[in-house]
Design a protein that fits this description.
The protein has four helices and no strands. By secondary structure, it is an all-alpha fold. The chain has one domain. The longest helix has 34 residues.
Length: 107
């Protein structure tokens, strides 16, 4: 259950950041690209993680190899925050409300 809360928290943060950084007229395209990259990388990560775990299990045994695989996965996942912390994101500010208009949609 704690991992579900962490995923929901991270998802709401990324959506908020994306909404603040991307103009309204481009948000649909950016969301589509983010989802395609996110969901498309799941099978690649699964294969790479399985190969890494198999290699580590063969080299160090089941318990040590799987523990090492999980630790490496955690380090890789944690390292993804480094560009966010070192980039412009902490200084990001909301543009004026006058420049943020909702596009009209004809249904």
């Amino acid at each position: 259950m704690p991992s579900c809360r962490a995923i929901c928290w991270a998802d709401s943060d990324s959506v908020t950041l994306r909404q603040r950084a991307v103009p309204l007229e481009l948000q649909g395209r950016v969301v589509a690209l983010a989802r395609a990259v996110g969901f498309g990388s799941i099978p690649i990560g699964t294969v790479l993680g399985g190969v890494a775990a198999a290699l580590l299990v063969n080299a160090y045994g089941t318990r040590t190899g799987l523990t090492a695989a999980v630790v490496i996965r955690g380090l890789v996942a944690s390292s993804s925050a480094i560009p966010l912390l070192l980039g412009r994101i902490p200084a990001l500010r909301l543009p004026d409300a006058q420049n943020r208009t909702v596009a009209s949609v004809n249904l």
